[in-house]
Amino acid sequence: MRYAEKLEKRIVDTGARLCVGIDPRPELSGGIENVPEFLRRLVGETAEYAAAFKPNMAYFEAMGLRGLEILEEMLGEMPKEVPVILDAKRSDIGETQKYYAKSYFENWDVDAVTLNPFLGYDSIEPFLNWEGKGIYLLAVTSNAGSADFQRQKLADGRYVFELVQELAVRAVAEKSATDVGFVVGLTNASSEVLDRIMDAPLLIPGLGAQGGDLDSLAGRGRTAPDTVNVSRGISYNEMDRSFADKAQEWHALLSL
Ligand SMILES: O=c1ccn([C@@H]2O[C@H](COP(=O)(O)O)[C@@H](O)[C@H]2O)c(=O)[nH]1
Questions:
Q1: CATH number for the domain formed by residue range(s) 3-253
Q2: How far does the centroid of ligand 1 lie from the alpha carbon of residue 206, in Å?
Q3: Which of 60, 167, 207, 212 could form a cystine bridge with 71, CB 3.0-4.6 A?
Q4: CA–CA separation, 15 and 6 (whole Å)
């Protein structure tokens, strides 16, 4: 089964496009020693609502070697039916990317990863021929700085993020086994952006703590399995409520 099919199935099974972000902050959960239990509860309580899980490497790397062990343990215990998108945003020359691809797709066996496309097509090639896997290229990120490059207009009237889409078009033409989608931040998902974004799987961060407006996605007629990520809005918002309770609320807002 291709990555996009697995994700589509999960979206249909859960009835919503909720991607549960996993960004553990040890300082908010009583230190690194409490993080494994925090993650077990977060994953356990939200799995039934999750179309996907998205751990962000930064939060695990910040805990040092123990953080990588915690990530590995968590990945090993993830429910197999929920796709895992590793938010790594990697970018390097192709030779080095081969090793990132091996690490994420072979060793950790995650379903998809985020990549920074700035180094061009040969930098994403090592990720392209993996059965059942997906990559999300940063196209229009959710930060204000996305205006600095991604939303600049070229002389021919296209935006820079449209060049990112060209990489996906090429991957499809070359019959990539890996599905290629895009990261589009909800906070910058204007109709000008969305009108130009291909019908390929979108990973959409920016809901909850970053204040993105879901209405901007309405009535688009897209068919690809898009998912909308919520991290702090489940893990660290209203700490007196359970993860399950908060996930259920986001799930209702994102229901099909
Ligand atoms: O454009 C982007 C790309 C990635 N992210 C990541 O998504 C989550 C968002 O967390 P919240 O707590 O829901 O704001 C986090 O891991 C970011 O690094 C993004 O926000 N924007």
A1: 3.20.20.70
A2: 6
A3: 60
A4: 14
